[in-house]
Amino acid sequence: MRTPIIAGNWKMNKTIAEAAGLVRDLVDVLQEIKNVETVLCPPFTALPTVAGLVRTTGIRVGAQDMHWEDQGAFTGAISPLMIREVATHVIVGHSERRQYFGETDQSVNRKAKAAFKHGLIPIVCVGENLAQNETGQTNEVVTGQVRAALQDLAASQVATLIVAYEPVWAIGTGKAATGPGANAVIGPMIRGTIASLVGEATASQVRIQYGGSVTPDNIGEFMSQPDIDGALVGGASLVATKFSSIVRQSAEIKGARR
């Protein structure tokens, strides 16, 4: 069975002091919840502080983005060499990076390769926007993004990465996909595409999250689906009680299905 994974993407929120306070509120509760992997993804400025606070807890830390080069004249960018000192995971290809900062399928692939080169686990984000969804392009868009992101990766690498399906129309809008609707994309489209690239045995190992307006009220609907292995949580990850509830419910639902 795939171990559930819940990641909190704090986006451009929390000062260093605020981040420390949130982690302190989360640590004791999250440590009590078994059989779920938890990843906190604070802004770059708070990464060292958060990493220090969770070092002995089993809670993982992730960066929200990175450059694919090790070093160089890339003002404002953060390299995988810098990230691996304070994190184990890195989000690549988030829809906001694609929409506002020019992220492309090709750059997502380069970042995924760089992550593996330096021992980081990429959380690869894919998803269609509202227009694409309404015009029946979901399959074409999502499968195309998956193929591009995984190009030239070895099966052993693909088996360990995480894919996050984030329908763009559901991110920060309060309009989440339904559990069955998300599973219909994650199972046949995403896991099916991975199987066509590296085989069904490898595809069955890949953990795939849902992301997009995830809350304590709807997490149960998503985690009860057979192909959904976790969630990439945005706004709710900024509130300790909400995030811990999401993690706890995920553990209970997936544990009961083992």
What is the count of helical runs? 12
Order of helices and strands: EHEHEHEHHEHHHEHHEHEH
What is the helix content? Answer: 40-55%
Strand content: 5-15%
Strand order of the largest sheet: 1-2-3-4-5-6-7-8
Q: Uncertain segments of ≥5 residues (pLDDT<50)?
A: none
Count up the domains: 1
Q: Please give the radius of gyration in angstroms.
A: 17 Å
* Class by alpha and beta content: alpha/beta
Quaternary state of the chains: single chain
What does this protein look like?
This protein is of the alpha/beta class. It has a single domain (5-256), classed as Aldolase class I (TIM Barrel, Alpha-Beta Barrel), CATH 3.20.20. The protein is built from twelve helices and eight strands. An eight-stranded parallel barrel has the order 1-2-3-4-5-6-7-8, surrounded by five helices. The chain is globular, with a radius of gyration of 17 Å.
Sum this structure up briefly.
By secondary structure, the chain is of the alpha/beta class. The chain has helices at residues 16-32, 47-54, 80-83, 95-101, 105-117, 130-134, 138-149, 155-158, 179-198, 200-203, 219-223, 240-256; strands at 5-9, 37-41, 60-63, 89-92, 121-126, 162-165, 207-211, 230-233. α1 runs parallel beside α2.
